[in-house]
Specification:
With 444 residues, the protein is mainly β. It has 1 helix and 38 strands.
Length: 444
């Protein structure tokens, strides 16, 4: 059924009318429609633009009156062209206005809202649905600055227990059933990487070149950046319980056994390994075991028992000696993980204590208490400690960890508070996961 209507109304402050016998009628205002006994008007929001997946800055304001200009309340219906878009509608009985907040969808560069009313008295078959307005918005503006919400919902993740890894090009969430990886947190979806059946309960880590890997007894499983498959690397036959692996920026692989003094290197993607360092020899017999290995570009830093650190680059070894008991120097190798930044090693001991080893002064500075809900995060050259269920975090400022707090947006459409489950950093900007699975990322 088609419905035709024609109006030659000229609007003044009191909505006066002129007949249709004018040979030169005024041009029709697309923001004003008259259907039956109702005047519909777009007061604000006829020319909109924004970014896909984000809430528009301005509201759409509609107004309905009768032919005498008296406000009317209408039970309007709305159809959205992009299935991912959302609106929040606030109607007023007093002034006949409807205010609409519009969160653009993630799919289309041009999106629309069809405003529909069920109108009586204009068709012989009774009341019919009439599309009053079709309000359009472009969705191709670049995301420039401020908080933005990801187009993808992550409610399928256990954001409390899953492991988050990132460098400046790749953000990864490690779950019990697979790994999700993305290079674009706002508009990009996460690709899924199945975990090998031999995954077990080991730690997945990321190399300086963006590759991710995990160990299973004497085998190393490696996922190259940009792929969704795993390469199985056989370690030397004398390897028996590998607990430290690192990948340098050039892709070279190093590993050390638990309770071992020897470090091995592969320069050919794991086809062969060679011994490059023995900590017992390099520390004059003071250290038997390697505690942690961390990379910085193509340099290696090896933390050993008896509070020594060895720096290795192209076969040249430099030794750093710290005071006795600067950290738990007899801890097992699997108790430690490390990050490196600005000639400092951030040594996390089994989520109990965080030591900052200053290689320039050979002293421990800025040690911080850790707990089971603490997370050591490196983004860029910045080092953070984040905590579950809060936006509070600490950032290392050169000599100590300084506390900060992230000021979040008020939530979708300004009426939902954001309940933080987990916070991390990507490209030195905060990433917040809510307990509903929403992801917020601050673009700077």
């Amino acid at each position: 059924m088609k419905v035709f209507f024609y109006s030659c109304l000229i609007f003044t402050g009191s909505f006066l009318f002129q007949g249709c016998n004018n040979d030169n009628p005024e041009p029709e205002d697309p923001n004003i429609k008259v259907v039956g006994n109702t005047i519909y008007r777009i007061v604000e929001g006829s020319n909109l633009s924004g970014s896909r997946g984000q809430i528009l800055n301005g509201q759409i304001v509609l107004e309905m009156t009768d032919l005498q200009g008296n406000p009317l309340f209408k039970n309007l219906r709305y159809e959205l062209s992009d299935e991912d878009s959302e609106i929040f509608v606030n109607s007023s009985f007093d002034d006949g206005q409807v205010r609409i907040d519009w969160k653009l969808g993630c799919n289309d560069l041009t999106q629309s809202i069809s405003v529909i009313d069920n109108v009586c008295g204009i068709a012989k078959d009774g009341c019919i649905d009439v599309t009053i307005f079709e309000i359009n918005s472009s969705a191709n503006e670049p995301i420039s600055n401020g908080w933005f919400q990801s187009c993808q919902n992550y409610s399928f993740l256990d954001v409390y227990d899953d492991n988050f890894l990132s460098d400046d090009e790749r953000f990864i969430v490690v779950t019990d059933f697979g790994i999700y990886s993305t290079e674009e947190l706002i508009r990009g979806s996460m690709s899924f990487i199945n975990l090998n059946q031999n995954y077990g309960n080991t730690e997945v880590r990321m190399g300086d070149n963006g590759d991710i890997y995990y160990m299973s007894y004497t085998e190393l499983y490696l996922n190259k950046k940009g792929t969704t498959s795993w390469d199985e690397i056989d370690l030397p036959s004398n390897a028996y319980s590998v607990n430290q692996v690192a990948i340098m920026e050039n892709g070279n692989i190093v590993f050390a056994d638990d309770f071992s003094s020897t470090l091995f290197l592969s320069t050919n993607n794991g086809n062969s390994f060679q011994e490059i360092l023995n900590v017992f020899n390099e520390t004059d017999g003071l250290a038997y075991n390697i505690q942690s290995v961390v990379t910085s570009g193509n340099k290696l830093f090896i933390v050993t028992q008896n509070n020594n650190v060895l720096e290795w680059e192209n076969g040249v070894v430099k030794r750093y000696q710290f005071a006795a008991n600067s950290w738990d120097s007899w801890g097992n190798i699997y108790d430690f993980e490390s990050e490196f930044s600005n000639n400092k090693i951030f040594l996390n001991e089994n989520n109990r204590e965080l030591y900052v080893l200053n290689l320039d002064t050979e002293t421990v500075v800025g040690a911080a208490n850790f707990s089971y809900n603490s997370n050591l995060v490196k983004s860029g050259e910045d080092i953070y400690i984040t905590y579950n269920n809060t936006t509070e975090y600490q950032k290392f400022t050169g000599t100590y960890f300084e506390p900060f707090d992230v000021e979040l947006p008020s939530g979708d459409f300004g009426y939902t508070n954001i309940n933080v489950a987990r916070m991390s950093f990507f490209k030195s900007s905060p990433v917040v996961f809510t307990n509903r699975g929403d992801l917020y990322y601050f673009v700077n």
